[in-house]
Amino acid sequence: MKEKLERLRSRLPNMQPIRLETSDFLWDLSEEDIIRTLVRNEHSGLLFGCFAPEKVLEELEEVSILSALRRRGYDHFEAYCGSAPGMPPLTLFEDRFTVFGTAEGQRYLLVEIKTHWGTLLFPPDRTSIRALIWDWVSFQHPLGEFSPDRPPLPGQEHPGLGIFRRSLELLLSWSKRMELDAVLNIPEYFHNAVLYSSHFHFITPQLEGRLRALCRDLLPRGLVAASWALAEGRVVDHAGEVVRWAPAEQVFAMQGKVADFFHSPAYKETVAAATASLSYHYVDR
Fold it and tell me: What does the CA dihedral 214, 151, 189, 221 come to, rounded to 10 degrees?
């Protein structure tokens, strides 16, 4: 058993500061559970390994998310945890939750969430903490159309469904029911970081200060304009250097040392100092 796990570990890429270890996959799992997940690449069929698809749909109904989807023309919802008809196969260690809806006799992917478990070496003493990593979270309206008033954001293929904030609250409420220290995401674009910033904070306080300074200086023109400008190299700092968005670890703290770190005077003071020291402005074409 140990030799099989070690062989699998040796094939994993280096994922600093997220480190996948043998111990990550031993929480409350039997040997058969581990063999099923790591060797046969089978999955639990539960969101985050805990919540059944039918229960997830019930809660989506309770918080009026499915009602919002019906107003956009979708119905007959199906939810899957793990593999789903018409979707690519899952990769090793990856879990996926999807919601499909039907409109005019056609089936559409509306929600997709990809996650995996890992350990995070957390400051200041690089404590190893258990984290649920959100690799990909998408809420898309395939039948929707972009407009001058609602243009696409970088990386966006379809308009959103208008359910992000409610869905984020629900995702975090499910996470709170689990025994873990943190939820982690790595926002690919500036707008992703802004949307998560009501609950998530960057581990590095200087990067949290960077986000706040970017918001202060760029958001007066709107989130779409700011995110595109950073993606296209049309923002400069006080020294005239071009600034582009650089993804980093953004964390929702659950409990213990993680929560204490973000509430500490040292973190808050460093964030405030970084925010005050940075300035950005647009360079228009």
Answer: 0
